[in-house]
Predict the structure.
Amino acid sequence: MSRYEWIVGFAVMAVLLALPSIADMADEPFWVTLVARTLVVGIGAIGLNLVLGYGGMVSFGHAAYVGIGAYVVGIGFHHYFEDGYEWMNNGWIQLVAALGISGLAALVIGAICLRTRGVYFIMITLAFAQMVYFVFVGLDIYGGDDGLSLYEMPTFGGGATLGDDRDLYYVAWVAMAGSLFLVHRLINARFGMVIRGAKSNDRRMKAIGFPTYRYRLTAFALSGMICGLSGFLTANLTEFVSPDMMHWTRSGDLIIMVVLGGMGTLFGPVYGALAFLLVEELLSAFFQLWRLWFGPLLILVVLFARGGIVGLLKGRVGRNG
Amino acid sequence: MNWILLVEQVLNGVQLGLLLFLLAAGLTLVFGIMDLVNLAHGSLYMIGAFIAASLTQLTGSFVIAAILTLPATMLVGMAVEVLCLRTLYDRDHLDQVLATFGLILFADDFVQLVWGPAGMDIRLPEFLRTSFEILPGVVYPTYRVAIIVVGLAVAAFLYFLVARTRIGMLIRAGASNREMVGALGVNIRLLFTLIFGLGAMMAGLAGLMAGPILTVQIGMGNDILILAFVVIVIGGIGSIRGAFVAALIVGLIDTVGRAFLPEILGLFVGQLAADTAAPSISSMMSYLLMAVILAFRPEGLFPPRSG
C-alpha cells in the first residue's frame, strides 16, 4: 500500500471517529444512526474481503454469518425474556457466542465448499446460506418469518447496554478499527502470503508444499467470525433480528460493497460500505423506486470501474485497476 | 400414509421438477455455452408471469396470452443480452454475478413501476379449471396435468433440438470451443443472442405456467432461481440431461418432503418435535442433498464431457 492510501484511510477513519461530534455541531443527530449502520455493515464487508478480495474465494453466502451473529443476540434475549435465564442476556456471553458460533458455522460450511472451485464455489456457498436462511424461517419459536424484536438490550455488567446509538457508534468504530488491524496483520503475515499466493496459483502453492486448503479454510472461518461480530452489533443497533438479514440478496449487497470499495485492499470495504449506503440514502431520498437507478449504476461500475474506489484513488481506472 | 395422497404429491413433485427444469435448462445452456453466470434468469421468469397476467386480462384468454408471452419474453431476453450481457462474456464470474445482480435490482423495481406493487392473479379458462380421474380414485386438476405435459414436451423438444438439429450441433460445438465455431464462419454473436432468447423464453414459459398456481408478484423469481441453481449444480453445470434428472429429484424431494416429513420424523421423535422441525428441514432438504452430492462429486452428477 502506498503512503497516499494510508493517509486517505486514516483520514476517513478519523472523520468517522469525529462524526458524532460533527453531527452535534450540525444539529443532525440522525447522521449518527445512519453512519452507525454503515460501520456495522462495513465490518461484515471487511470480513468478506478477507476471503473474496485477498483469497479470491467468491463467497455468495456471507450474510448467513452476519445473521447467525445477530440471532445469537435475539435468541439470548428470547430465553431471558420468556424463561428468565438472566445470563443469556449478558452481552459478553452473547459476543463470545456470536463469534464462536458464526466462526464454527463458517468452518463447517467452508470445509465442504472449499472442495469445489470457481462457479461451483459461488453456487454452493449461496446454497448453504439459503439453508441457514430456511432454518431460521422455519424456527417458529424465534418468530419464524417475522423475526424477533428486542425489547431489552443485552447488558455488559453494571447496567451498561448498547441501547444508546452514540455508545454503539463508538463501540462499532472500535470494532471496525480492530477488524482492519486484524486483517492487516493477517494479510502481511505468512498466513496472508499463502492465501494470496493460492489466489493467483493454487497448484504452485501446493507444489511448494503449503497445505492451501487448511489456510483457505482458516481464512474462511475467520471471515465468518468477523461477519458474526457485524451481526452482533447490527442486532444491538436495530434492536430487531429477522431471517431477511440472511437472504441471499444481502450477501449480494456485501459483495457489492467489497467490489465497489476495491477488492483486496485494506480500506476498500470501508469505502464501499460508505458509498453503498450513501448512494442508497441519496437515491431513495429522490426516488421511491431507487433500485431502478441503483441497478444500472452497479452494472456501469462493474463494466467501467473495475478497481473500485481505491482504484480511483490510485488514479488507475480500468479493468485491472 | 395413504397412497392417493402419495400419488398426488408425487405428481406435484414432478410438476415442480418440470418447472425447475424449464428454468435450469435456460441457465445451464447459457452457462455451458457462453460461460455466463446469469443471476437475472429469475427476473425473466417473473417478467414472463407478469406479461402473461397482463395479456390474460387484455385478451380475456389465457391460451392466447400464453402463446403471445413466449415470443415476448424471448424478445425481452434478446434485448437484455444485446444491451448488457454481451460485454460480460470475457469477464470473470464475479463481474457477471455483480452485473446480473444489478439487473435483478433493476427488474424488481421496473416491474413495480409498470405493474404496481400488488401481485396479480391469472384467471384460468373453464376447461382448465376442471379436474379428472387420472387413476382409479385419484382426482387431479387438469391444469396441473397440463403443466406436466407441456414440461415433458419442452424437455423432448430441447433434446431433439440439441441432439438432432443443425442449431443443436452448433450449440454443442460452441460449448466445447467457441473460437473454432466462429472461425468456421458461424455468426457466433447471433447464435449466442438466439440461445439466450431461447433460455429466456423457457423461463417465461415457466413463469406463465406457475402464475395461475402461485401468485404473480415482485421477487417471485429470486427464490426459485436459487433452487434452479441447486438443480444445475447437482446435475453438473452445462449438462441438459443432468438438469432434467436433478430437477425431477429436487422437485420430488421438496414436495414429497414437505408433505410427509412430519409423519416420517414422528416415527423417530415425538410428534410435537416433528411438527416443529419438519418445515425447516423440508425446505432445507434440496440444499442438504446438494451438499451431500457435491461432497462426493464436486462436479455434479453428470459433468459435461468437454472441460
